[in-house]
Amino acid sequence: MIHLQLGHLGTASVFLAFGLALYATVVGALGAQRRDARLQTSARLATVATFLVAATAVAVMEAALVSNDFSVQYVANHSSIGSPLWVKIVTLWAALQGSILLWSFLLTAYTALLAFTAPLSPLRPWALAVLSAIQVFFLGVVAFLANPFHTLASPPANGPGPNALLQNNWMMAVHPVLMYLGFVGLSVPFAFAMAALITRRPGSEWMVQTRRWALTGWGFLGAAIVAGGWWSYEVLGWGGYWAWDPVENVSFMPWLTATAFIHGVQVQERRRMLKSWNVMLIALTFCLSILGTFLTRSGVISSVHAFAAGPVGPAFLAFFVAVTLFAFGLIALRWDQVRDRAELDAVVSREGGFLAGNILFLAITFTVLLGTLFPLLVEAVSGQRVTVGPPFFDQVTLPLWMLVLLLMGIGPLLPWRRAEGASLRRNLAWLAGGFVVSGGLALLLGMREIYPTLTVALAGYNLVSLGLLLGQALVPRVRLTTRSPWSVLWSYAHESRRRVGSMVAHLAIVIIALGVAFSSGYRVDQQVKIDFGKSTTFQGYTLTPVDRFMDRSAAVISSGAIVDVSKGGRHVATLRPRLNVFGSSQEPVAKPAVMYTFSHDLYLNLDNTIGPNTSYVVLRTIYSPLVSWIWFGGLLLVVGVINSLLPARRRWAESRAEAGAEETSPA
Amino acid sequence: MRKVVYAVLGVAVLAVAGIMIVKALNNSLVYFVLPNEYARDPQGFAGRRIRLGGLVEPGTVKFNSQTLTLTFTITDSIKSYPVVYKGAPPDLFKPDQGVVVDGRFKNGTFVGDQLLVKHSSNYRPPKPGQPIDVNMLKKTLQ
Predict the structure, then answer these.
(1) Are residues A259 and A361 in contact, defined by beta-carbon separation less than 8 angstroms?
(2) Which of A267, A498, A551, B93 is deepest in the core (most CB within 10 A)?
(3) Helices (H), A299-349
(4) How many domains, in total, are found in chain A?
(5) φ, ψ dihedrals at B105, nearest 5°
(6) How many CB atoms lie within 10 A of CB B1?
(7) B122 touches chain A (CB under 8 A)
(8) Do residue A374 and residue B25 have CB atoms under 8 angstroms apart?
(9) Looking at chain B, which residue has its C-alpha nearest residue A363?
């Protein structure tokens, strides 16, 4: 009975991992409390053991999925023999139980990595204990509430396979993993912040130690959100990528607070201000990621009455409450130490800009939270079933986003402490020039919609700002050397990695903003009916459904239309919008066909079933300008983060210049 | 002095933001109702965007494939309304199927721009002649 053993091995590893995490928490906390090096070492080793055992659990699940072992309940419920190998592998995170297993595993991996790479400091034992405590919760959920390894006495011959919408696109393989890497990454600075409070060392130590982790987590979360948008675009057939859906919102809120955090950190590093603010931001980020899991996994969002439906929901709610009480209680307890003593010297300063930006990010977070939770509130009070539509989120957040873009341009140009009149006025004049020229150009080209036009103006303004920043850094360097400006730029990018990384990230945000503004402001969305062999024109393109097709494989049956796309008599693309039916499910899911170009996308979604005798196709045709800029911007954002993370090359140019200066200076 | 100015400014900004948010929330709340619930208070929903849920009444479905206009009657067995939807019927659209339409009422006709077919394993349309359990229907369609 080899297959029975697989399920049992999985359950055993999950319980063992849970026990080890518990050990690491208790012994780690004791060791930290008593400053006992032996206990601390024991706890550190336990985190590594937890990781190895959790890795075993994941490996067992993968083995069960790949070998179609339907005696394991999770495999029986969510996998299918006919699925391609990649679908079987990613089925690990296609449903709730497996996702939590993956999340736990990533958490143990980060903790073990941290146990061996974090420098020895008074913070480390406590941070590891906090992370182990989080592991106890997650592994406890896996072991006691959502064990995917339950074995079935009479296994079915085949399973239904994962949700069709998830199978429809390879993005499903990427998006959830990025999301969990983001959440887990951000729990590292959270753990260090808590350790700092526990040990009464609320200085900048915890932040400096976890700067890379925070940035990594933030980068993964951002990449996950963009990837999720792309998945939605490629799969859901409405040509959009963001619908302010609760599931989207709950991943967006921790990203917003984490964005505020990575900016706030810099103020604390430079000016020793915003101490309590930063601790609260990272605590908020962690709490929101747990709240999000609760909201999306418990079913409360779709109905209050499903409140007690799943066993996982109440557990996450309880954990959310416990973590919130613990974190904010601890902050209150240590308020005297984290409270800021310094005051802002002037509002118009770098730190003033950072603070204003932070307030904006929190305001957006609050808006999203309100819009997400409001239906719950209304239903609880009046029993009325309501949804908060996208207009709410757009109306409230768009002005705030414009302010974010405004600050993003001026903030980095402001000096710390206090801006001088003359240089400030010069910079402002340049920025205003960029704003007016690009805004005016947009108006001349016929743009009239307020937000897209404003976004173009602010994009020009931000490009000028980036140019000024780069110019002010490079011009003196170029003057000092005989090297070419390009080689100076190259070495600057390697030396001032964080600075250049932030410029790249800001450029990426400008690109994403333009993509969002144009694709939502100027998209054309029509439904057309075309007989086979006939043509219709849409946005300058001639669409001709030339034939129908049907593909059959073990996992999926697709049928659709072959649409010839031409422009000015020249063939440009052949698109195959289709309907897919996966495995045993009867429900067809549409798979749109997209022609990506630099300036716009042509997006076709099939709205009718194509059978052998169908004489026409009904297409939802969407023309969406600049939408691919969003995906490119997401990629660039990741590049910016990576650049910030890489170790800075030794400032050889500077040290050489210094050496030269010493030689020539009169002794 | 400076602190007082900041505090007053802060409160003012918060107040304005609060009013704007409440207004925006109120404008974009979309109520989910069954035909009989709408019939009780048509004035209350006048001009509002709503999600109307119900069953497709058999024998009322017409689809004009030239203009891509779908018309049918939506019912919860107590009250029925004609629905006009611009677009092709979704694949699972059929008589007695539970549907949710987003849109607005215009002169007694519901003009929808989004049509969702709700499939559920726990709701079975009643046999002809038997009444519909309205609460059950509403729960299923949510």
Answers:
(1) yes
(2) A267
(3) 312-333, 335-338
(4) 4
(5) -80, 135
(6) 5
(7) no
(8) yes
(9) B17
Do A392 and B142 count as a contact with CB atoms less than 8 A apart? no
Residue A16 makes CB contacts below 8 A (sequence gap 6+) with A53
Sheet with A600-606, strands from edge to edge, namely A524-531, A616-625, A600-606, A593-596
Q: What are phi and psi of A131, to 5 degrees?
A: -65, -40
Closest in A371, A386, A616 to B65, CB measured: A616
| A158-208 pLDDT per residue, tens | 888 887 777 777 887 899 899 999 999 999 999 999 999 999 988 888 988
Instruction: Please give the structure tokens belonging to residue A150.
Output: 């339950």
A76 CB contacts (<8 Å, ≥6 apart)?
Answer: A70, A152, A155, A156, A159
Question: Residue A395 in contact with residue B24, Cβ under 8 Å?
Answer: yes
Cβ-contact A132, A29 below 8 angstroms: no
Tell me whether residue A666 is in a domain. no
Domain range for A283 is: 167-400
What tokens does A271 get? 């000016």
Paired tokens of A570:
């020249």
Contact B38, A393 (CB under 8 A): no
Q: State the Cα–Cα distance between residues A519 and A448, nearest whole angstrom.
A: 15
| Whole-Å CA distances, A203 to A124, A126, A258, A603 | 15, 16, 19, 52
Q: Which of A162, A195, A212 is the last residue of a domain?
A: A162
pLDDT tens, A387-415?
Answer: 888 889 998 899 999 999 999 999 999 98
Contact across the interface for A579 and B91, Cβ inside 8 Å: yes
Closest by alpha carbon to A255, among A229, A225, A235, A232? A225
Q: How far apart are the first and last CA of chain B?
A: 54
- Both A643 and A623 in one domain: the answer is no
Q: In sequence order, which ranges of A383-449 are alpha helices (DSSP H)?
A: 390-410, 421-444
What are the C-alpha distances in Å from B45 to residues A78, B30, B33, B39, B40? 42, 10, 10, 10, 10
Threshold 0.95, pTM exceeds: no
- A479 and A535 together in one domain: no
